[in-house]
Amino acid sequence: MLPHLLLLFAVASLACVFLAFEGREANAQAAEPPAGTKAAGLDPFKTSCAPCHTIGGGKLVGPDLAGLKDRVPSREWLLAFLKNPAGTNDDYAKKVKAEFGDTMPAQAALGDNVLNDLIDFMFAGGPGLTVKKLRGATPEDIDLGRRLFTGEARLANGGPSCISCHSIIGLTGLGGGTLAATVGAKHTDLSNAFNRNGGEAGLRASLASPQFLVMKQVFADKPMTEEEVIALTAYLGDVSKTTAPPPGRDYFVIYGIVGAIALLIALDLIWIRRFRNVRKTLVGGSK
Questions:
Q1: Structural domain containing residue 113
Q2: Segment 64-104, tens digit of pLDDT
Q3: Of 123, 147, 173, which residue sits at a domain end?
Q4: Number of domains in the chain
Q5: 45 in helix, strand or coil?
Q6: Within a domain: 275
Q7: What's this model's pTM, rounded to 2 decimal places?
Q8: Contacts by 221-225 with C-beta closer than 8 Å and gap 24+?
Q9: Is the domain of 45 the same as that of 84?
Q10: pLDDT tens digit string along 152-161?
């Protein structure tokens, strides 16, 4: 009798283990929506689209994507546009670019499966998508934003300061960096970035999850905090109100000319002094 009971106990134990394992598998699958479902496009939308677009929340850098299914020529057109926006130049694409500019980065690297998940998600109206509303800015935020831009205050997660690559109105000295131009950025000067990126909502979204090629890589593991996003947006918004012209680069030429003249004068003074000392020695020796 005892062997039979032990056998039954062993079978029951194995059944419990099997059921528990199946339960974990089911929970894991439920937590991660399978590809090909509307929900599967939520995460890629947040990382690749939300910095420039909303679904029902208004325009940012790019258009509001609510009702996108009824606006685009076809699903196939949208897939091709997502892969290569710059190379899509039919009448509808020209209309969109005329209003929002030709700034959308190509998303071909995401692959067809993810892009189709994104299209399903957008056509369905963005199920499950929520937007966190940040607090309003204060005058203190403007000052903090200026210090973050210039590097006087460090970004909490170790990202580089804006001045490393960009210039802006009102900076003293050499006026800021130009590195952004060397990596293909269209806008080195950020004096009008607030307006160019769709105002407060658009710029905040762009800073929270940058889509510009180099910034996306640099800030991937060093994202700005909410407070830093608010402060930099407030500072850039304040700067955008000025009517002063953006800083030029002619001062390098001017400084070079002034420096060369100063160097020539210094060399001339040194040479004259040396010439006089030699002349004194010669004149004195001839007497």
A1: 38-123
A2: 899 999 999 999 999 999 999 989 999 999 998 888 887 78
A3: 123
A4: 2
A5: helix
A6: no
A7: 0.58
A8: 222/155, 222/157, 222/158, 222/159, 223/157, 223/159, 224/155, 224/156, 224/157, 224/159, 225/155, 225/156, 225/157
A9: yes
A10: 999 999 999 9
